[in-house]
């Protein structure tokens, strides 16, 4: 396959999530009806858009209320980086649903530049992939720092049904990673390769790309 043809630039990087997640390390007793009480170990969801620097609007277990800002940004709380990614990576459906309900961004990026959908597809967690794809603002074909998309991950790991779901959600099968590989190029499974080949043939918008793929394949 030719390695000289430049790949198309990746789409604009989605913004990181605006909701931060903390785990309480100590109990807190509310002193008014507006404040939230919580116990050690409970998860707190806090928006980074706060109207008052002294009080944070937060959500715990579906309940909303105020928490002193100096309590949140202290040793009393442990911030959880990328909780939606971790839930997707492990296939933890309860945590995944809770994060989405609390408006943790479905398109947030971790240090590798990957979305939660990438890790759900990578792990073959079909229910997690399905739940993420049902979110109205989900970006299906985001490339990470290596240029891989969720479709690359599912194809490479041999997760046939995840590949099928991604294609049904219009995942782009013509995106090349930094090694100039399409998802079909990294597939080691005949059924997955057949699914990807069929999707590429049927995508009339990318007829030229498919012709180039066939040309490259013939040259190998």
Description:
- It comes from Caenorhabditis briggsae.
- Residues 17-77 form the SH3 domain.
- The chain folds into 2 domains: 19-80, SH3 Domains (SH3 type barrels), CATH 2.30.30; 105-219, Ankyrin repeat-containing domain (Serine Threonine Protein Phosphatase 5, Tetratricopeptide repeat, Alpha Horseshoe).
- The model is unreliable at 1-9 (pLDDT under 50).
- The protein is α+β, with helices and mostly antiparallel strands.
- It has helices at 69-72, 83-90, 93-101, 116-123, 126-133, 150-157, 160-168, 183-186, 190-202, 207-219; strands at 19-24, 43-47, 55-60, 63-68, 77-80.
- The protein starts with 18 loop residues before the first strand and ends with a helix.
- Strands 4-3-2-1-5 form a 5-stranded antiparallel sheet.
- Helix 4 packs parallel to helix 6 and helix 5 runs parallel beside helix 7 (160-168).
- The chain has 10 helices and 5 strands, in the order E-E-E-E-H-E-H-H-H-H-H-H-H-H-H.
- 38% of the residues lie in helices and 12% in strands.
Beta percentage is: 5-15%
> CATH H level of the largest domain: which superfamily?
Ankyrin repeat-containing domain
Work out the count of structural domains: 2
What's the number of extended β-strand segments? Answer: 5
Major beta sheet summary: 5 strands, antiparallel
Q: CATH architecture of the largest domain, please?
A: Alpha Horseshoe
Highest CATH level, the class of the largest domain: Mainly Alpha
Termini separation (Å)? 5 Å
Number of helices: 10
CATH topology of the largest domain: Serine Threonine Protein Phosphatase 5, Tetratricopeptide repeat
With strands numbered from the N-terminus, the spatial order across the biggest sheet is: 4-3-2-1-5
State the share of residues found in helices, binned by percent. Answer: 25-40%
Helix-strand category: alpha+beta
């Amino acid at each position: 396959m030719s390695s000289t043809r430049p790949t198309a630039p990746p789409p604009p990087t989605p913004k990181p999530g605006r909701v931060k997640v903390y785990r309480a390390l100590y109990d807190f007793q509310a002193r008014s009806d507006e404040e939230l009480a919580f116990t050690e170990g409970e998860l707190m969801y806090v928006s980074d858009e706060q109207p008052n620097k002294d009080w944070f609007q937060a959500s715990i277990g579906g309940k909303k209320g105020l928490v002193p800002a100096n309590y949140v940004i202290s040793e009393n709380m442990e911030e959880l980086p990328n909780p939606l990614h971790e839930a997707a990576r492990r296939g933890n459906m309860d945590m995944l649903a809770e994060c989405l309900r609390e408006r943790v961004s479905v398109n947030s990026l971790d240090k590798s530049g990957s979305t939660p959908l990438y890790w759900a597809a990578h792990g073959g967690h079909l229910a997690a992939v399905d739940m993420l794809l049902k979110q109205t603002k989900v970006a299906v074909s985001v490339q990470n720092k290596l240029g891989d998309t969720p479709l690359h991950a599912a194809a490479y790991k041999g997760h046939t049904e995840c590949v099928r779901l991604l294609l049904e959600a219009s995942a782009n099968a013509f995106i090349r990673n930094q090694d100039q590989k399409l998802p079909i190029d990294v597939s080691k499974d005949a059924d997955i390769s057949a699914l990807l080949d069929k999707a590429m043939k049927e995508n009339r918008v990318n007829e030229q790309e498919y012709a180039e793929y066939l040309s490259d394949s013939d040259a190998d």
